[in-house]
Structure prediction request, 724 residues.
Amino acid sequence: NDDDTISVSTYTCAQRFAGTYNVGKGGIYNSVGEFLDRLMLCGMSGPVTVNMLPGTYRENVILTAIPGSSKTNILTFTSSTGDSSDVEWEREDDAYATQTSTLAAPLVLDGASHIVIKNITLSGMAPNTTGGYYYSHGISITGSSQDIEVHNCHLYVPKSFTNAVSGTSHCAVSIYQGAVRDVRIHHNLIEGGGTGCYVYGTSASRVSNVTIEHNEIGYVDYSAIYAYYTDSVTFSYNRAKQRVGNFTPVNAYVTYLYYTNANMLNNTFDFHAIYYGMYSYYFGDTTKGYYKVANNAWNGTLTGSSSYGIYVGYYTQMDFYNNSLLFDAGGSCSNSYGLYCSTTISRCNVKNNIFHMTSTGVNSYPIYIGSSSYLSFMDIDYNCYYNEYPTAPRVGYMGGIKTTLAAWKSSVATDKNSVWLKPSYVNSSESLELLDSAYLTCPTIAGYYDDVLGRKRDQKVTNMGAYNFTPGKLDISLLEIASPMHSGLTSAKLPVTVLLKNTGTTTVTTLDLGYMLNGVAGASYQWKGSLAYLDTATVTIGTVKLDANSNDLTVFSYNPNGSKDERPFTDTLSTVVFGCDSAMNGTYSVGTAKSDFQHLQDALDAVSYCGMGGPVVLEIATGEYNEIALENFQAGSDTNILTIRSAARNRDSVVISGMYPIKITESSHLRIEDITFDGSVVGVELGGMLEDVEFRHCNIYSDFNVSHTSYRAVNYPNTSGSGK
Prediction:
């Protein structure tokens, strides 16, 4: 009878595993999965290393508790060469078909413990994807996993989505489940998706003891870290950047901390579309030592109608010390805040920070405290506040708008030593490193001795902000090219004049200066005088004659007091100066090598810089063109109109394409005729005060396949007060 026989296949273990085992092509085991099948059957009697030979591994591995593993019997995955680029571990499955969030990774640790993963690449991408990605992770740590370490790895998920990714469905590091604890993620390259590091517990069981430090986090759209119901999290010395590209960015929660006790230390965040720089809600626990936010730098743009640098939510316990914030709030952001506190809190000490806002919105506040009742839980002092909005200064809000530093200090009794000052940066587009620390001196707070780069602060006196400034002895900094600025006549000899500052402690009596115009060096000049520490001087180096159109001008200093400058990266400035034969008047051809202007943007710059002596018409040759911008164009008048049109008088003959093919802000007296504007997001982007601007006989397109409200043929936000 068929049912009288039973067969079984067994695997006999000669002994438990211990030692190093080569896996991959040419190894003892052909795949990671094959080796782990044996390991799970036989267990471990000592430390085990999976030595992955160079190659691509397409495997989905779910690793549970391993028999015999312990704090001494550790399982290690590593590349045999020690180079993460030599081992690429990808998902094998069709990513679109995998709809279970925690499984969408090449390696899932589900209840596994005592694991080290180093020197390999883990990719949440799959080679045979047919429809897209519901979820993707480089690594997923879930269940009751504990004692997990991931270092010197490249972890990534898709980083070229057509549209920006919000939320946490795509994150290179996913730590998901309340029972997970003791996880260390350090010295990795983490890229792609919406969120870099996702740490998610529950109200009943929090993820605990997670350290994420010294990682490079890039190509993310939404968050650097998203923490939800977590305990004892350290997020330190990470460098995070938001993805840029030809798409509409999402408004980011750069750091999201919800029912989370954490220390956020010595991180930099460079995001260009920010809703919340840091969102905290029931954050911090002073009894456990996880409540510190210190020596971090946020640098980016606040977007949305109301956006927040640091949002201090309900029952937060936080020490906010020595942080640097530089937030640009564009015209679409009508309410912007550096630090915002308008709810019941438990503790919020705010000291030694820089809150620097650049905004065109009236309601822009470096610091906002909703009610005087919150002050009994706050200690605020030694901060630098600055808002560059020229006509409606807002030092802060404390039960009402405070337009002067004196009014602010009279409302906040503890804040006796803060300053209203525009900080000077070496290059704010790259970092918030200070050019000098004049008037930013403050007492060092005990225990906070390392700046954002790990440099030691003086234990008694330091400066506000995340970057510690220690002046050298010989250090000259060039602040600006005072002449020529923007444009000049080609017929004139123009002085090359520079504003410089002594940012070294030694008085400078001699200094060599030079310049280059369009790659040709001019004569050097030796300045003589007496320039004490932090004093400035305006020096004319020589004269130049400009060529027509754009000119590249570079000025530089060297040999202070005949010696080497200790910080040479502040010794050079460059600019572009437009050369004008005369004010423009008449009709000009654009778009070919034989035209008056080969490039359309050059023609627009010429009108802006050289002015108009009468009506100007720019006739564009048939072809396709990149995005153009007219900002603060005020050269025209009721009689002197600037007209931009296709030379063929055919709207299909000239196509200007891009995310925003044309942007016009704060401009007047314009006519745009017979042109197609083909925008992937917005066809025509308008902003600020516009007057007498008219589009005639044009095609204006957005992407009609996308239903998102950001996609518009014409976008003109905040139009009140505009002209016709």
